[in-house]
């Protein structure tokens, strides 16, 4: 890493002026500015309804009924208003953020950006569930798990019920919310501040580092640090006279976020251009103890961003990495070609069509009898609670801790791919914790890793793209949530959201209390009731024996036993077209099973779970042998994972089976194993 770069390394770009692209606005029928509250009435109640344009009719109907009740209402979708400041101000203006939930809302970045910002601004959120065959997932599902109210729209009568619930919930929030930080100047909720012309630079680059004067030194530092990546880099200071911006010519746009950048109109216009042209944005905050809250806060809402203030913070060690290295990795990932949703789903669509053709050729009647795929979005999934065996060991069964680095062992598996998109990988558990406990968490993760427990938590660069999406994907993929409860965990908005979404998805819990004498809210007590709980105030506690078994092994066994008992948690992460093809294939396979008499759903002879014969993944087997016979110096155990019983859950992924199994002893070595494994 070098020192600050000289002025000669910064590319100067030529200027020509181009019009700013303007998307077509969607008008708000029967809703005009007179229905939006003014600052003169401090008792006015402000409601914002956010939706995708495909649900605009629903939004307008709700808005008109709300206005008829003498409340103020504003509509926001992916195109209206356009300017960043107007969108941010509209969200700040509202007392309650109402979101009309749909597949299109889930899959539209500008819609999710608004919801993430509402969450960051601590706005009370009300969910209007407008599609009966869609269950929200990812960041949308996670944020809605904390909604103050969820309402299903099914018919005209439900509109009146929805309006009544919205108004009642809003008024309750107005009473309990003592200090709302709302924008009250209506002139701030319009597109009048957008630049009608944009001073476009002509330089072509891979990475454009955009800065103002107060972030210039950090921009140059990053430029110097990324030179060895062989990427084409330029730095543009947009606070200079006659400044230009080459945002349309770059692949990755890296704004250096500072107070001056937030106040510079050209910087805001540059970010609006980056959003409009779907550029990959990698934000860097360059001012210590500062975070943007206005339009710039909207840009980073839900995003992974970096904090680099100077050479020292850029290279400050963080385990086996540092901020500038993590920024370099994120930048290189962002430079890769990003497939469209259509391209990403084309492979699955073709695979589904092949399977449908096979079913069609075998069935006597086509199409098959269809069954309802309506989802009860109001009903939370329920976890399976199990009675755990009392720990017991008669022979030597001590605990030895092994430290892990990226050089010697694998880091937690990435929960998102190189594009920041969710990867559906079955996990035994996800670790949910507050960052202040990371040293303890890391040590316990190392023990889990040594025992072949597939675990994920957000360290070592596994977080890419949207932080809320990554968190939600971890919850969705995990069978068990290992929670490190502390005072700061309970007080943290993000930790609380993580726990609420885990409850909504019906996850099992193993609770580690990391501090004594801590009061828990009633909903938390209800969520963790009946699940194993342990007091782990320091790492040394894990070495203590419970009936001869180290506490860490007791915890691991609890995780495994609970994970094996949990049913699959399917995620509806697709377009309406793909969902219809999946549903049709499901119906076709049911029809084929009925015609042939061949059972589709069977019971696994290894784990006891029911499984779909077309989808056999989700089971576990042991990767090594069982050592013991009750007379050795060492405690009987599977050498691959230290579990003590012969029929304990497996430790590596495999397919379900329905063949009979036999436990076979090798008399020569004194070891045993299952056949088939």
Question: How does this structure look, described?
Answer:
Helix 5 packs across helix 15, helix 5 crosses helix 17 (493-504) and helix 13 packs parallel to helix 20 (576-596). Residues 1-41 have low confidence and may be disordered. This protein has 677 residues and is of the alpha/beta class. Helix content is 33%, strand content 17%. The chain has four domains: 7-18 and 195-334, Toll/interleukin-1 receptor homology (TIR) domain (Rossmann fold, 3-Layer(aba) Sandwich), CATH 3.40.50.10140; 33-188, Toll/interleukin-1 receptor homology (TIR) domain (Rossmann fold, 3-Layer(aba) Sandwich); 427-565, Toll/interleukin-1 receptor homology (TIR) domain (Rossmann fold, 3-Layer(aba) Sandwich), CATH 3.40.50.10140; 602-675, no CATH class. Helix 18 (522-528) links the parallel strand 17 and strand 18 (533-535). The chain is built from 20 helices and 28 strands. The strands form eight sheets. Strands 8, 9, 10, 11, 12 and 13 form a six-stranded parallel sheet that branches.
Name the descriptors.
Rossmann fold; TIR domain-containing protein; disordered N terminus; 28 strands; 33% helix
- Quaternary state reads single chain
CATH topology type of the largest domain: Rossmann fold
Radius of gyration over all CA atoms, rounded: 28 Å
Total domain count: 4
Could you give a quick summary of the protein structure above?
With 677 residues, this protein is of the alpha/beta class. The chain has four domains: 7-18 and 195-334, Toll/interleukin-1 receptor homology (TIR) domain (Rossmann fold, 3-Layer(aba) Sandwich), CATH 3.40.50; 33-188, Rossmann fold (3-Layer(aba) Sandwich); 427-565, Toll/interleukin-1 receptor homology (TIR) domain (Rossmann fold, 3-Layer(aba) Sandwich), CATH 3.40.50.10140; 602-675, no CATH class.
């Amino acid at each position: 890493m070098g020192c600050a770069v000289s002025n000669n390394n910064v590319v100067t770009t030529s200027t020509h002026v181009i019009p700013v692209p303007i998307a077509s606005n969607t008008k708000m029928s029967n809703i005009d500015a007179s229905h939006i509250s003014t600052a003169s009435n401090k008792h006015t109640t402000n409601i914002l309804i956010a939706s995708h344009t495909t649900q605009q009719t629903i939004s307008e109907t709700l808005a008109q009924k709300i206005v008829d009740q003498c409340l103020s209402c504003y509509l926001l979708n992916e195109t209206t208003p356009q300017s960043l400041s107007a969108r941010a101000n509209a969200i700040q203006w509202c007392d309650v953020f109402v979101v009309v939930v749909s597949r299109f809302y889930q899959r539209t970045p500008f819609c999710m950006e608004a919801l993430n910002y509402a969450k960051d601004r601590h706005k009370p959120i009300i969910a209007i569930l407008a599609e009966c065959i869609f269950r929200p997932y990812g960041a949308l599902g996670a944020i809605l798990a904390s909604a103050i109210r969820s309402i299903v729209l099914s018919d005209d009568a439900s509109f009146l019920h929805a309006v009544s619930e919205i108004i009642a919930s809003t008024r309750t929030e107005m009473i309990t919310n003592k200090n709302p930080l709302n924008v009250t100047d209506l002139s701030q909720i319009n597109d009048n501040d957008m630049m009608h012309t944009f001073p476009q630079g002509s330089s072509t680059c891979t990475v454009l580092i955009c800065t103002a004067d107060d972030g210039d030194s950090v921009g140059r530092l990053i430029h110097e640090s990324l030179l060895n990546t062989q990427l084409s880099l330029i730095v543009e200071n947009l606070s200079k006279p006659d400044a230009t911006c080459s945002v349309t010519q770059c692949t990755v746009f890296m704004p250096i976020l500072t107070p001056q950048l937030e106040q510079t109109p050209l910087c805001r216009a540059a970010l609006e251009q980056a959003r409009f042209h779907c550029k990959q944005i990698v934000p860097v905050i360059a001012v210590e103890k500062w975070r943007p809250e206005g339009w710039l806060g909207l840009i980073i809402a839900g995003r992974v961003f970096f904090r680099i203030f100077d050479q020292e913070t850029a290279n400050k060690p963080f385990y086996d990495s540092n901020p500038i290295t993590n920024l370099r990795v994120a930048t290189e990932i962002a430079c890769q070609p990003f497939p469209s949703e259509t391209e990403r789903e084309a492979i699955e669509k073709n695979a589904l069509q092949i399977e449908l053709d096979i079913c069609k050729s075998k069935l006597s009647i086509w199409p098959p009898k269809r069954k309802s795929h309506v989802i009860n979005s109001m009903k939370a999934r329920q976890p399976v609670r199990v009675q755990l065996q009392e720990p017991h060991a008669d022979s030597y069964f001590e605990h030895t801790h092994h430290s892990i680095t990226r050089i010697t062992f694998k880091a937690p598996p990435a929960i998102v791919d190189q594009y920041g998109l969710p990867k559906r990988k079955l996990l035994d558990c996800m670790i949910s914790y507050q960052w202040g406990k990371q040293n303890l968490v890391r040590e316990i993760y190392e023990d889990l890793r040594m025992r072949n427990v597939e675990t994920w938590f957000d360290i070592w660069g596994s977080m890419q793209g949207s932080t809320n999406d990554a968190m939600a994907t971890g919850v969705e993929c995990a069978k068990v949530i290992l929670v490190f409860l502390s005072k700061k965990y309970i007080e943290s908005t993000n930790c609380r959201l993580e726990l609420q979404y885990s409850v909504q998805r019906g996850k099992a819990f193993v609770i580690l209390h990391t501090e004594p004498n801590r009061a828990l809210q009633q909903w938390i007590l209800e969520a963790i009731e009946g699940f194993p709980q342990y007091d782990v105030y320091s790492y040394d506690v894990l070495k203590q024996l419970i009936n001869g078994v180290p506490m860490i092994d007791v915890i691991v066994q609890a995780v495994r036993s609970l994970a094996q008992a949990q049913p699959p948690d399917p995620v509806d992460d697709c377009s309406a077209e793909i969902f219809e093809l999946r549903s049709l294939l499901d119906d076709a396979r049911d029809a084929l099973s009925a015609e042939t008499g061949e059972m589709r759903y069977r019971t696994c002879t290894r784990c006891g779970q029911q499984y779909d014969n077309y989808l056999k993944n989700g089971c576990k087997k042991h990767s090594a042998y069982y050592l013991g016979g009750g007379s050795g110096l060492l405690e009987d155990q599977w050498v691959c994972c230290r579990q003590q019983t012969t029929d304990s859950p497996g430790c590596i992924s495999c397919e379900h089976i329905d063949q009979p199994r036999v436990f076979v002893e090798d008399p020569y070595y004194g070891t045993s194993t299952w056949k088939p494994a």
